[in-house]
Amino acid sequence: MIAANGSHALRVGILDHFSAGGVSRFLVALVTHLALTHPETEFQYFVSEANVERDGLLEVFSAHDNVEVVPIRAAMPLSPEVPPPQPERGWLWTTAVAGLKAMPRLHLALRRAYEHARDFISPPPPPWYRYRLDPEPLQGLRRCHVVYMGWPYFVEPVDFQVPLVATFHDFHYEVFPEAYAPDPLSVFRRQTPQWLRQCATAVTSTRFIRSQLLEFYGDSAPDVEVVFIPPYGFAAPDRASVEETLDRLHVRKPYIVYSGSRSAHKNVASIVRAVGALKEQGVDLRLVITGHGTEVIGAAESMSLTDPVHLIEEAIRETGLVRGQDFIPFGYVSNSDVDALTAGADAVVSASLYEAGCGPALDAWQAGVPVAMSSIPPFLEQMERFGVEAWVFDPHDPSDIADKIRSAVFDTETSCAMAARSRAALATYTWDDAAREYFRIMVEAIDKAGSGEASGDGRGQVVAR
To answer: For the domain bounded by 239-426, which CATH number is listed?
Structure first.
């Protein structure tokens, strides 16, 4: 047995083949505080080379002698989504294609034949969501005493031959299957129960997501523990850092921040409609948008018509909001910049229809910034768990969102009091607390393996802490 007090040397392997936004911030914070709270333990962080470069992870962990960053092949590049340039075509080509498009059945048949021949001659690489671990990192993980996965999606299951602990953040693809093409949807539904069966313990960040895990995959579930997530940022930035960031990015107050993706369940279109309604009422307010892929908002003419960004584009057209003036879509920004934008905001807003929890709200409460967010179960659960306060709205009602944003930003006496109480309440739960819980679960997973207790036996036992 390996004791949690470090009486025996312990090597923990952490796998992060693909993450962005909240998940990458979660993992950086967790690894940092695992290293700080358990200096006697060796942590090997097998992480996408794209993340290493993007987030400067070698520098981030250079102060921790017990963390080794091991770059691995990325599942998918995390660069801005720019459509590939189209080759220039002559008039003969253009005329011929136009003629074929006038005969849809023939055009479709010829296009399919061309794609089949192209793929036969030069088979395309496997899609990013069928990512497979290379032999070298797999062998490195197998030399650890326990493996932890912070994002057990988009990767083909393998046998690590050591105990596995994984955090299942949400099940968006089960709640919104229409947002996925048939092939990736079938892959996710196959991969998830396979990963669950390999886990000694599964972790969720709210009781709501735990209940969904058991609802969708109860037959495959191992023991399930709930470990709530603290704010992603270790501490709120100081005023000088905030002012420097706002000046450099040309952000003028008052403004609200939305941090996330452009996915349909994030419901950004409703925030846009709410800001548009406030503009009609003469309210001076800007919407700052950050998150991977959000830089195309307001300029998405070249994006696929099936991309959910067009839901946001429709809301922009309806409200007449002007890119760069009424809303500023930055796309993915550094952790320090998003922390500064959050700390300097007049409010942080999330209109999500489905989440595991609200990370941007946690960062806002930590910084003493007002929050306006959806009345969905995981958000309400966070408020109950931490004793924090927010202006809560119906995410399906842009007028209600507008009213709550107005109150959050301009009812300063009430909002400041709510934010101050929330900041004090949230200070009682830190990343050290979360790291100790995760470490305990990892050690117990090793103990289960040592006692011969099978993992992933379908018991679905629930342990909430």
So the answer is: 3.40.50.2000
Helix (H, G, I), strand (E, B), or coil: what is residue 8? coil
Other beta carbons within 10 Å of 20: 20
Contact assessment for residue 219 and residue 197, using Cβ atoms and an 8 Å cutoff: no
Query: What is the secondary structure of 432-461 as a DSSP string?
Result: HHHHHHHHHHHHHHHHHHHHTPPSS-S---
- Print burial letters for 280-310: b (CB count within 10 Å at least 16), e (below 16): eeeeebbbbbbbbbbbbbbebeebeeebbbb
Burial of 122 (0-12, 13-18, 19+ CB in 10 A): exposed
> What is the chain's length?
465
C-alpha 299: how far from chain center: 23
Of 410, 406, 374, 368, give the one whose Cα is nearest residue 392. 374
Query: Does 239-426 match 11-78+129-230+431-464 at the fold level?
Result: yes
What is 11-78+129-230+431-464's CATH number?
3.40.50.2000
What are the sequence ranges of the domains in the chain?
11-78+129-230+431-464, 239-426
At residue 101, the pLDDT reads: 65
**Mean pLDDT computed over every residue of the chain:** 88
Q: Which 3 state secondary structure label does DSSP give 387?
A: coil
Position 234 scores a pLDDT of 64
Q: What is the DSSP string of 308-355?
A: THHHHHHHHHHHT--BTTTEEEEES--HHHHHHHHHH-SEEEE--SS-
The reported pLDDT for the residue numbered 19 is: 80
pLDDT-flagged residues of the chain (< 50): 1-7, 78-84, 454-465
Torsion sign over Cα 237, 243, 249, 255? positive
Q: Is the dihedral of CA 253, 257, 262, 267 positive or negative?
A: negative
- Residue 114: CB atoms within 10 A of its CB come to 10
Q: Which residues of 27-62 are buried (b: 16+ CB within 10 A; e: fewer)?
A: bbbbbbbbbebbeebbbbbbbbebbbebbebeebbe
Give, for 272, the enclosing helix (H) or strand (E).
Answer: helix 268-280
Burial class (CB in 10 A: 0-12, 13-18, 19+), 112: exposed
- Taking a C-beta distance cutoff of 8 angstroms, is the pair 120, 113 a contact? no
Task: Judge if pTM exceeds 0.70.
Answer: yes
Tokens linked to 234: 């270790």
